[in-house]
Amino acid sequence: MESYLIKNIKIDSFFTKPVFLDDRFVLLSPEMQMDLKTIQALNEWGFHSVLSEGTPSDAYFSGGATESDSSSETVVDREHIEQAEQFYKTLYKYTRRILFNATGSEFNFAKLAQWIQEPINVIRNNKRYILRIITAPRDEEDPATRHTVQTTILTVIIGLYIKLPNHKLIELAICALLHEIGMLKLSPQHYICMRQDTPPSDQRILVAHPIMGYSILLKAGFPVNICMGVLEHHERENGSGYPKRLVGDAICQYAKIISLACHYVSTAVEQPDVLNSHEVIVDILKNKENLFDISIVRALVSSLSLYPIGSYVLLSSGRKAQVINSYRDNLGAPVVQIFGERSADGRNKIINTASSEISIARPLTQDEISQLPQLTRDVDFV
Ligand SMILES: [Fe+2]
Questions:
Q1: What is the structure's pLDDT at 91?
Q2: pLDDT > 90 fraction of the chain, expressed in percent and rounded
Q3: Domain span at 190
Q4: Omega prior to 188 cis, within 30 of 0
Q5: Residue 209 CA to ligand 1 centre (angstroms)
Q6: CA 232 to ligand 1 center in whole angstroms
Q7: If you measure from the C-alpha of residue 180 to the centroid of ligand 1, how many angstroms do you get, rounded to a whole number?
Q8: Which one of 264, 287, 304 terminates a domain?
Q9: Same structural domain, 224 and 260
Q10: How far is the centre of ligand 1, averaged over its atoms, from the C-alpha of 179 (Å)?
Q11: Which among 154, 95, 107, 65 is positioned nearest to 343, based on CA atoms?
């Protein structure tokens, strides 16, 4: 592996193969730019060089990377996807036990805080791979647990984006993990966020569930910050939420983050036939009724992009593709992996639509998605 001095690496260049900080930690994969922020962060952390088997290049895929370079990147990608899948399954299993079968000794802050640190680290280092797999159809799973896992992952991603300190990230993640605990105790069949068409009798149960969750956690000795996050996770910025109709800054930060993550999962993931994930993101961004804190909205949109990572799109070339990465400075032009278009080595082609003539035409409809073969895991890496 060659060592490259950071001061000699051109800003916004790509490496033709993964870039490592040391013999274990992958810093960048080939479609990620060595941007100014990364270089500044490396300098702040005291790193003066990075390692790579590739070479720096001005462009990714269209001129810079060779076919063999792209295939080696795909192998790294596949390993990350498999790890993300394994991570999801472990988180799902643990969450299910905590929500439904936790005994007194397991159901306490110290135990959960110790356990949740590792998932936070995994999400921090593998965000774009985890985002690609969390929205995949998972009909065999228990809906309450699936909702909780997806909301928790998104919550942590937002917490990371706004740079919460680690002790707050731990509290926030536990808060997300337990945000529907009151619903599961009151009425397990009504686990998800309140819906417009819910009958009045059930609405009373729904309105009570944050209070129930708060009481359960307070009694179990959880920190007040976590209890309050659970109590307020259905409050809305404009005062239209429940149970206390709080407005703006009266709502705690954990609740603001969880309410947006919960809303995204309840709409984009759980009801894709109503609005696709792109439409949900646009809707959230408009924030017409001032439902969500604008700083949290920005954090979510910047983390997912306008065409959320993991979603499926039609390209201007007529090909279908999956969004696999995005850059904060160009949220409307993410990196995509194209179905049915292969490089010379037979692997699926990846392009950065920000630096390509090909652009995104529109998101795929649910019908079009259902006609795709078994998605991501099988198709991408033939
Ligand atoms: Fe809820």
A1: 94
A2: 37
A3: 69-304
A4: no
A5: 7
A6: 9
A7: 5
A8: 304
A9: yes
A10: 6
A11: 65
